[in-house]
Write a structure and sequence with these properties.
Length: 389
């Protein structure tokens, strides 16, 4: 692997404040020192670095753009830079922080009761507790409105039954935010580890996000107090709001993965010689690949920064975030594939990060709304006509 010196073709750093640069540098050093030297082994072993969770909390990376409860109260741009640098190391680590922050802490912060906030947010922020987000079901991914998980009122409790799958952090979580259909509509419930009838089983054999925990959740007559329901989360709209928060971080994270692949290919291309003493970076077809990569990365950086500024002004909505997620993950995956091509056979060796990023990005391309679903969200915004089915 080659040292990373940053990617900034269009002097975008000039638009970042000193505080934003400091956040980026802090996360960059953490990734370079604590993650990148070891990620190859963790990916091989299919092992999530659980020992880093407390450090992530200490450094303020968990729930970093939330207020109170020990959270760092970063701006959305600063939060995005955290996601960028974590995913430059590995999508699995960014996924952990994204789920903890945007899919568990955010809904508790936005929709939870005072008791729920006081109990869970400080522990989640410090990494003393881990959470997961239970929305996707075996038969319902892109269509969460079809969910079969049910919650039925029984006295002062609810009884939950159903299945969830492809759940990041599932088996290591202390609390799961499970979305279930009730007679009054879709609601979110906090289900604690150890609750009778609740279990989590890891999904094995993944070729992607191997340094991340992915699980299936089973709920069989799981009894939870009515006080465990998020009082402010009414209807599927609340769950989709959480997804918008997570997709925003993904849009930044994908830039980090793209930068990692571009940097690796560029440095490799400068030293790898073929057809004489000329480095392959000096060949026209290879330069065309670098030109395409740096152009798309630059556009992705600008899009992420602009959506972040809009979000800090309270003016970014779900359709803006869909464009960010759709575009930036696509260009990151394309960049990874181009980088793999430039590295040739070495591109499939895990001593280089490119193939790992490429495998991870195949999942990122699909989760939190597939590329095609975001196409339809943008299409509806542009035309005013829904075309989901």
């Amino acid at each position: 692997m080659f040292p990373f010196h940053g990617v900034d073709y269009m002097e975008i750093d000039a638009f970042l404040s000193d505080e934003e640069k400091l956040v980026r540098q802090t996360v960059r050093e953490f990734a370079d020192n604590e993650v990148i030297p070891h990620i190859e082994g963790w990916f091989r072993e299919g092992k999530f670095p659980l020992h880093l969770v407390a450090t992530l909390g200490e450094m303020g990376f968990l729930g970093s753009n939330l207020s109170g409860y020990g959270c760092a109260e970063m701006s959305n741009v600063q939060y995005g830079l955290v996601m960028q640098e974590l995913e430059r190391a590995d999508s699995g680590l960014r996924s952990f922080v994204s789920v903890q922050s945007a899919l568990v802490m955010h809904p508790i912060h936005a929709f939870g009761s005072d008791e729920q906030k006081q109990r869970w947010l400080p522990a989640l922020q410090q990494g003393k507790a881990i959470g997961c987000f239970g929305l996707t079901e075996p038969d319902f991914g892109s269509n969460p409105g079809g969910m079969r998980t049910r919650a039925v009122k029984d006295g002062s409790d609810y009884i939950l039954n159903g299945e969830k799958t492809w759940i990041t952090n599932g088996s290591i979580s202390d609390v799961a935010l499970v979305w279930a259909r009730t007679p009054e509509g879709v609601r979110g419930f906090l289900v604690e580890r150890g609750t009778p009838g609740f279990s989590a089983k890891d999904i094995k054999g993944k070729m992607s996000l191997r340094a991340s925990v992915t699980s299936s959740l089973s709920l069989s007559d799981v009894r939870v107090p009515a006080a465990n329901m998020l009082p402010g989360a009414t209807g599927l709209k609340a769950a989709l709001d959480c997804l918008t928060q997570a997709r925003y971080g993904i849009g930044w994270g994908a830039v980090g993965a793209a930068m990692a692949c571009y940097n690796e290919a560029l440095e490799y291309g400068k030293v790898r010689k073929q057809f004489g003493d000329k480095p392959i970076a000096g060949h026209q077809l290879v330069q065309a690949q670098f030109t395409e990569m740096i152009t798309e990365i630059t556009k992705a950086q600008l899009l992420a920064l602009h959506v972040g500024r809009l979000k800090d002004l309270g003016r970014a909505d779900f359709a803006h975030v869909s464009m960010l997620k759709r575009n930036n993950v696509k260009i990151a995956l394309d960049s990874a594939r181009s980088a793999r091509d430039i590295l040739g056979a070495n591109g499939v060796a895990d001593e280089y990060p490119v193939f790992r990023h490429m495998c991870n990005l195949e999942s990122v391309f699909t989760y939190e709304g597939t590329h095609n679903i975001h196409t339809l969200i943008i299409g509806e915004r542009a035309t005013g006509v829904a075309a989901y089915y």
